[in-house]
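User: Hi! Is it possible to get a structure for several chains at once, not just one? Here's what I have:
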Amino acid sequence: MELSDSVLDHLRRVAALPDLSGTRYELETEIGRGGMGIVYSARDRVLDRRVALKVLDLTPAGEAQLIAALEHPAIVPVYEAGTLPDGREFYAMKLISGARLDAYLAEQPTLAERLRLIWRVGEALAYAHSHGVIHRDLKPQNVMVGKFGEVYVMDWGVKAIAGTPAFRAPEGPVDQRSDIYGLGALLRFVLPDPNPPALAAITAKAMRADPAGRYPDVPAFLADMERFEQGMAVQAWPEPLWHRLRRFAARNAVLLWLLAAYTFAKFLIFFLRKF
Amino acid sequence: MNKIVAGLLFGLLLGAFDGATAWFYPEVRPMLTGIMIGSSIKGMIVGVLSGWFARKVQSTAWGIVVGSALGLLFAFLVAVMDAAKGKPHYLAIMVPGFVVGAIVGFLTQRIGTRDLASERTR
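Assistant: Yes, the chains can be modeled jointly so their relative placement is included. Here is the combined structure:
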């Protein structure tokens, strides 16, 4: 008996599904695929809640332990790790309902909302770096935005992953500055076109080919972003005089209007006093 | 620097400057020192009250409204005293006083800490 291609595909898919017997989880659907494994949604029968279950193809270098050590609002918490009957390792984590960053941008968020996302990603990175963890693969597909605007950074620090070309630092051995490159690439990705020159300069500094030319750490990157948001000069860009004056006028518009009103009133009174 | 001190300083500086502009009026130039002192005191009172308001209410718009109202009120009192001496200058005193009050009200909202406790923790 010959089987059609569609039947064969179906059988292959079913054969590849993880065997969750002996675990507390009940498989639902596949929700994503990455270089290290497949992510499924599943139901935790004990606690009666939905979770994300990552089943790893390769023997991981402590991926679950690595993530579990990071407790941060923007890092998806790991609930449990274990081994399936077929020998593959898995871990269960919080199931995020929301959109991936690239899908979220299709909703045309404002510049402030886009910058807030990068800020949250940066905070998570700074926290991870302070614990000696490097992400290695920052890209829009690894950032989720929840229904209430919460931001999650996923797929942390797997050494087997070399990074995604458009977001990967050019240097060989990666360190924290490689993540700063990725953060700059992420900022460039979320910015609308045309974008303010100060933000373009921040992106360019973070993405310099020479790691020594980048921001020394994530807080320095975030500080420059904060300067931009507060209408101050950013360190990455020696702005021209006209731009400095325009920024000053924008920051102090009310004061300048009041001073103009005072000057106008004085002139008016001075010239009207003889009439 | 707390907001009351900030208001005092801005009121003093702007009041003195506003008083100094009387130099452009030859008819009152001999009384310039007295005008500057009076205008500085008026500015300081408006500044202290605006600073006190800024500690209670954090709103640039309300800061400008209250500052300009205080400026107008105290400028009116000064204008009444001035009128009692002879030729009245209501417009020349009250309009700039109104705008200076607005500027002081704005500055006290923007500059200075809201209370002494937050200043101590800085």
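Chain A touches chain B through twelve residues (CB under 8 Å). Residues 21-94 of chain A form a domain with the Phosphorylase Kinase; domain 1 fold (CATH 3.30.200.20).

User: Great, thank you!
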